[in-house]
Amino acid sequence: HKNKDLQSQLSLEEKNYGTTAAHVRRAPFVPVSRNSPAKRDYLVVAVLCYANLINFMDWFIVPGILLDIQKYFKLGDGDTGLLQTVFILCYMLAAPIFGYLGDRYNRKIILGAGIFFWSGVTLGSSFISELYYWIFILSRGLVGIGTASYSTIAPTIIADLFEEGKRTTTLSIFYIFIPVGSGLGYVLAAGMADVTGDWHWAFRITPCMGGLALVLLILLVPHRTQRRAAAHRALSISGTIRVAAEKPGVHRTAKTTWCQDVISLAKNWSFVWSSLGLTAMAFVTGALGTWVPLFLYRAQVVQGIVSPCLQESCNSSNSLIFGGVTIGTGILGVIAGAEAARRLRKINNKADPLICATSMFISALCLYIALMVAQKNILSAFIFIAFGELFLSVNWAVVTDILLYVVTPRRQSTAIALQILVSHLLGDAGSPYLIGIISNAIQAKNAHSFQWSFWSMQYSFILCAFVGVFGAGFFLLTSFYIEEDRKEAEQ
Description:
The protein has 491 residues and is mainly α. The chain folds into two domains: 37-229, MFS general substrate transporter like domains (Growth Hormone, Chain: A), CATH 1.20.1250; 257-490, Growth Hormone, Chain: A, CATH 1.20.1250.20. Helix content is 79%, strand content 0%. The chain has 20 helices and no strands. It has helices at 2-26, 38-59, 61-64, 66-73, 77-102, 107-125, 133-161, 164-196, 206-220, 226-246, 258-266, 269-303, 317-344, 351-373, 378-393, 396-406, 412-425, 431-444, 450-478, 482-490. Helix 2 runs parallel beside helix 8 (164-196), helix 5 runs antiparallel to helix 17 and helix 12 (269-303) packs antiparallel against helix 15 (378-393). It is found in: Membrane.
């Protein structure tokens, strides 16, 4: 009699499961009361965007005052590039851990702890003397760990709150703050160095802003978003039905392990190829973000526009200009990419990866031209660098949206974490250091001069243009699989 009742209950749950799962897919969230209006969701996004802004400001403070840091610690190009490489390595190694935690535990607590941690470490790093370069490197690595907690989990909260159309727009706004924060990092660092005459003050502003972000996070971000909770309920019902069918009388929830999730993602070719495309983007972005101000400074020295940096505080005008260019091109690029994706999806289901492939190829071409004209005309170099950054920025929100619709909701944090791991391991974790090492090697084989100092950086930078072309090819491969993988995820 009990077995019949259980079978009857499971039959009813099985009928309701399809409706529940479909509702989870279509609706932005499952409302539980009238006290959770849509305005609250937009406030949550605003807090997450503000924290994302600070996140990337802190990320690019070091490149903004790279000349001062290089002089303060008496570093060559290789050791200077190591600063950003250590940051990215720690960031990417921590990302899978936070992805695992984010899929299973309270994401609000993880986000808050991450913001508090990197803010404190950044503040502490501003008091390190020139005798302890290794501690300064270590501090950047610790900041990378704190940053990973945010970058891994925040996009999944946005994905929980909005359905597909609004999700793309909201993610676009969220990712606009990557280039905006990056650009403001340059501006903040260069501006504080100019105003105070001491570059250490650049590391004392973002911790204060991080404290405000932590307060807003505690007050406004909910402990759990409804869409994710509904998805877990639907998966729980599914697991109960499957186990009960295999063993009548047994009532438990089936769970997959992290390894099973990784294996499943490795079979998702859209996820694999788009992640490799993002890796190429990260490689180029990391190299540009670290070395462009220094490269342009050396070009100006060769042209006689500025004198060599021998005074107490180095000229930071290139960082200020590059920061402004990064902000402007980032905003335009992300908006243009989201709008192009929204319009072209209506006529082509493969629009997203094709947009990424096209923009990546054009970006590589612009960057190559910028490298070639830098020695003759700084203005032309800035213009082509701006176009290169513009077309790179087109892809930020589109690539993340690809991941979110080819991967099931319960694997999204893990997928984002793996994408961060791969893209940074093979991308911007190594590119700043690799460019510096190649530059050092070229200088070592030639007479020491300002001309060869510029040429060494120019020749090593050409690698970025070729990597950009490979990235375009990876996104093109994504277009061959994206329709099939999207349908499988929706099922």
